[in-house]
Write a structure and sequence with these properties.
The chain has helices at about 25-40, 45-50, 65-70, 80-90, 100-110, 120-130, 145, 155-165, 180-185, 220-225, and strands spanning about 10, 110-115, 140-145, 170-175, 190-195, 210-215. The chain has about 230 residues and is of the alpha/beta class. The protein folds into 2 domains: about 10-20 and about 95-225, HAD superfamily/HAD-like (Rossmann fold), CATH 3.40.50.1000; about 20-90. Helix 9 (about 180-185) links the parallel strand 4 and strand 5. Helix 1 packs antiparallel against helix 4 (about 80-90) and helix 2 (about 45-50) packs across helix 3 (about 65-70). Bound molecules: magnesium ion (MG). Magnesium ion binds near residues 13, 15 and 176. Magnesium ion binds near residues 17 and 177.
Amino acid sequence: MRSSAPIRAVFFDLDDTLCDTIGTREARARLAFECLCQTHSELDRDVLVKRALEPRDEPRSAVGVRGVLMELGLLETAAGTAALEAARYYYEPLCLFDGVRETLAELMGSYELGVITNWESEDEQRRKVEHLAIDSSFRYFIVSGSAGFEKPDLRIFEHACGLAGVESREAVFVGDRLDVDIAGARAAGMRAVWFNHWGGSLDGASPGPDAVIGRFGELPGVLARLSGEA
Ligand SMILES: [Mg+2]
């Protein structure tokens, strides 16, 4: 039987859960290849951008700037490194999903809030939440590159609960990926809410989420229900 322990902490994935990172792909690729074409004038920026946006194995993954540089044999060159660096801290196009700011403000009064994100550089992730002006919402900020574990490894979820001083059954994780976010959180004994804003399918998800939301504003009601308060 599923736990009905009251919820004390809510942790969030960052990219494509709180903010639309995939939506910045084109702008970031344009900037990177603009930089690359200054050195390699034989290359066509628009062709490279188009290739970077082509889908890869998973539904929402793409070849990406790094993938294109690898195909060109330029990844390890000075021009390739400069192209990646140009886009690295380019956060201007990055936006929150609708309702995120208001929902976090509402939840702060009732729950401990934190972020658990897979990323090599903690500095980059901290800069993102500062750019989005939601950094003050989170007491806990766990980045895989610093924690030493990455989702879906249950140890990163346990680490987060330990920092917040809660049992895993008293914590909820909210994320956009079934394989990384939902499966990992459930394995750690947390409850998991799938933010399916992108029309994904639950087929084959095991274990599945405890709840699914399509809009961020649905979260307070879902948490109240999971907490047994509604
Ligand atoms: Mg994500």
